[in-house]
Amino acid sequence: MTIFDTWTDLTVSGGPVRAYRAGDTGPPVLLLHGAMLDTGRGVWRRVAPALATAHRVHVVDLPRHGGSRPWHGVLDDAFLRRFLDDLLDALELPRVALVGLSMGGGLATGYALDRPERVSGLVAVAPGGIGARRRAQLLTWLYLRTPGALRLTTRYLARRPALVRRSLVTSLVAGEDTPDLDDIVRLAVEEAQAKERHGEPALDDWQTRAYGPLAMRLDLLPDLPRLTVPTLWVRGDRDTLVGAAEMAAAAAAAPGSRLVTVRDAGHIVGYDQPDELVRLVTEFLAPLRTP
């Protein structure tokens, strides 16, 4: 039995949340996935079981992902930070190490800024929310503001599994040779189809509400000098979504933090180099003590 064979369905902040758990000893760790077609059992499929040998590992499907449906209303950064506080209460975790990818990394970073007393350590893997501008800023903002565009994108992805596969194969460093590729694709296609069934947009509110026409409305970089929790920044050397300059700026701004670049890895390091990510997280968390 693996961590994802059984789960607990919770109610958190008024909505459904699916939670997975493994490991009986060691400090607690909460893994937070990214946006769009990510799920807990997808992104962390090989990372969570390995971490559970030395940690009490918790994985959740964030709202509007995986088994955490349906949700109503706006689920932006402000909401998700409050949600994370409620989630830790529901999981009975007064203090926890946070490991987040992409949206999950940005959310974990923002939460660590707000509630450092509840975060024993932070591993931000290619986090979103870092930097004042993105490529094609205005064009992206216009697309996000086009009525119906995001739901049309959802329908397009849900009905074209071959397109989802090609997109994943292109983004993964090993391409068709990626271990467990068929399972990775299957979970992403299932997520696209679930989004269509529930009438959800292709992108999360956390992403869309972060964009302004000329600059990002969500940029954590100016706040990082007051980040007080031990922090490890991780980026794949072939990541096309989060730049090396942004990550270097984050590491320079956050006192005492460290940046590691993983070779032969793209945006989802846990797919391309899961063993190396486990090693980095394990070594980083080893000296930390969580009551």
Structure description:
This protein is α/β, with parallel strands linked by helices and 291 residues long. The protein has a domain at 8-133 and 219-285: Rossmann fold. It contains twelve helices and eight strands. The protein has helices at 40-43, 47-51, 77-90, 103-114, 137-145, 149-158, 161-171, 181-197, 205-208, 244-253, 269-272, 274-285, and strands at 8-12, 15-22, 28-32, 56-61, 96-101, 119-125, 231-236, 258-262. It has an eight-stranded mixed β-sheet, sandwiched between helices. Strand 7, helix 10 (244-253) and strand 8 (258-262) form a beta-alpha-beta unit. The longest helix is centred in the middle third of the chain and has 17 residues, at 181-197.
Overview in brief:
It contains 12 helices and 8 strands.
